[in-house]
Amino acid sequence: MNGESDYLHQVSKIRQPNLSDPLTASSPRILIVDDSPTIRFGLKRDLGQMGAIVTEASDGGEGLNIVDSQDFDLIITDIEMPRMDGFTFCSKLKSHPTKNSIPVVMLSSKEKEEDIELGFKVGAASYIKKSNTKKYLLARVKEILDKNSLLKGRTILIVDDSPAVRNLIEKALTKAGFHVESAENGRKALELLSRCTPDMILSDLNMPELDGSGLCKNVHANKDLSQIPFIIMSSDGDRATMRRLLQYGASAYLVKPFNIEQLVVTAERFLSDHFSRILRERERLESERQFLIGSITSLILALEARDQYTRGHSESVSAFVVDIAREMSLGEELIERVKIAGKLHDLGKIGIRDDILLKPGPLNEEEWKVLKLHPLIGAEILAPIQSLADIIPALSSHHERIDGKGYPGGLKGERIPLLARMVAVADTYDALTSDRPYRKGFSNDDALTLIENLQGSQLCPDCVQCFLKSIQRKMQI
Ligand SMILES: [Fe+2]
After folding, report:
1. 233 CA → ligand 1 middle, Å
2. What residues have CB less than 8 Å from 411, skipping those under 6 apart?
């Protein structure tokens, strides 16, 4: 269906970056390694309340056996345990070929600086003293899970002409849970970037064919790539060079030689900040959008409340059009848009004079002409709101007819956007079953027969069929 693909295309244009949202991710799986059943019990209860699925092990050896056969998002381990202590457990885990990226939190009553240092040395993501409050531990666990969920499986592109440097960085980043792509110079990197979009670029400065500076300029001139954090690695610590690179769009400048762990931590920090910023921005836009939709819906409700014959019309149309969308097996994200479209479809009536809108009798020709302006008025009202751009067709085209005899554009068949064809069916059914000052509403059966007969002339047959199926389904319940 052309209309459908148009609609889906419009929605995909406004869709936010695809992020694994830590707030909506599935339950985290946590392994607790501790020889004290009391501590395991308390932790299991607290983490369970956070929504985590918890597995227990009584020492490091048992922990390693369990990790071999199950996947975890986080491990919390005690240090002093019989058979295998927490340091050895963590160290062995970090040498595991596939499980080494699971973050480990060490929870211990050993509070000396050298113990803490050893904990981080063997790869712990956090070291928490048992004297800390439970609240602190749970906050730290949540922070690590969120960060891990944001970073897990992200792709980092390494661009360096030295195979040894590429291998070294690739190994360290893979171990930290990243997916790594690599290129030997800027030109090869651009070829790769035409096929895949990494989440971060780590580039050397001096390379043959196209150097880091040229690559950085190219990346930031491309609107599809310009948001990717770009880190330059170079032995040239000259301040002027650094400033020039930052001006070209580089996010940071790492001076070689650097410690490889420092590079991994920097990459994690940059990506974590980058995605946290995008998430915050997405949440802000979503809350603004909800506020906007709420305000417009209130306006429409106020408009309808003045007329007993149209009161609740938009809410009913919204509910019916959602039924049609479900019958079409549209995804939840699209269904949410369809719901809003149903609510706002008659927004343009705000611009129609009361003597026409509230007229108790049938309209004359002149009055009809004015009323027929409401689809375009609605579209004009919504036009400046970019986040609602995808639902404008529901407002502008819900009075078009499949046979081309509708208004305002006289669009025919699938040239009418799918969303508008769906709203038209819901709108017609609700209008038929509602009383008017000059006629009684049709019975449900008569309205359904009429709707069926309007297929192919006024209404889209696919949408009508989905609507009839949804009504049948409801009647069976
Ligand atoms: Fe309308």
Report:
1. 60
2. 397, 400, 404
